[in-house]
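$ run holo --ligand "flavin mononucleotide" --emit tokens
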Amino acid sequence: MYIGKVTIEPNLILAPMEGVTDLTFRRLIRQIGGCGLTCTEFVPGRGLRDHIPRVLEMVQFDEDEHPLSIQVYGRDPVAMAEGARMARDLGADIVDLNLGCPSRKVCAHSGGSALLREPALAKDIVCAMRTAVDGPFTVKMRAGWDPEHQNAPEIAHMCEEEGVDGVTVHWRTRTERFGGTRRLDVIATVKDRLSIPVIANGDIIDASSALHTLEATNCDGLMIGRGAIRNPWVFREIEAALVGHAPPLVTATDRERVLLGYYREIRTTFRTEKGALGRMKKIARYFTEGVPNGRVLRDAIWHSDTVEEAEARVRLFFATG
Ligand SMILES: Cc1cc2nc3c(=O)[nH]c(=O)nc-3n(C[C@H](O)[C@H](O)[C@H](O)COP(=O)(O)O)c2cc1C
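-- output --
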């Protein structure tokens, strides 16, 4: 798949996830392989423009982390355009606009999915960013605000007309947050109407959900979020399935090594133990879903008071499991 002139090979993309897809997590995914494009967590366009140190930290990437997409959110077209230009200057291969985030923090300022209810403003932002970004520019959106207002096909069409290079559509609406019943028809409608690449997102967790999504939507690529935390090998699993190969063999030792390696990295990147422990627990919530008897492991990590305790409990779980 190509987004503008950028090759995405394989056509499997790590979803932007706030508080998850930082440099450490993206390194983990890249080491395991099978992912054609990584994305930063969302950052405010205004913060990028103003060179806010915390925001710049959030978009750090390795020299060899290409292709990389930096995602920005906000509602001021001028600030968004300047932030997008900054993302490009920093070295992003692709700049992505967030029209999908349901988080209160973002919607409270009428960014993210709130913009689906303000198509005229969404268009102003898209136009301003398109003019500012000299390379590939994509937009990620939900199906609509609520099940009665699924306007992703119209918004996506507007994006294409304004020169956007690709769109990602998550089948849920804003009000469904992470619930709702899986419906892929909106993504299929978007794909049908557009000539630019369309990427499907939402509940792709393994080879069978990936193949089903591709078949039901005819989309060009797949974006995977929580499935990648739960099973960082999911990209390799899907990549293998796409060419008819068997999935990679992942042992309990592999899972232990990856989790402990990731925890070690976290310890070096967080300034406080509390921060590191919080991130460990957040990742554990999803990661343990991919581990047999993982609930026991999750509870053990959640009841840890220190980083050392969490690591020791991971070792004990795998040693006795
Ligand atoms: C912890 C978390 C943080 C997220 N942060 C972002 C974000 O920064 N930007 C964004 O566009 N979507 C964000 N999302 C939504 C995901 O990118 C994705 O659209 C959603 O989780 C559905 O895909 P999945 O079912 O594969 O997880 C986030 C989701 C989660 C679970």
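-- notes --
The chain has a mean pLDDT of 93.
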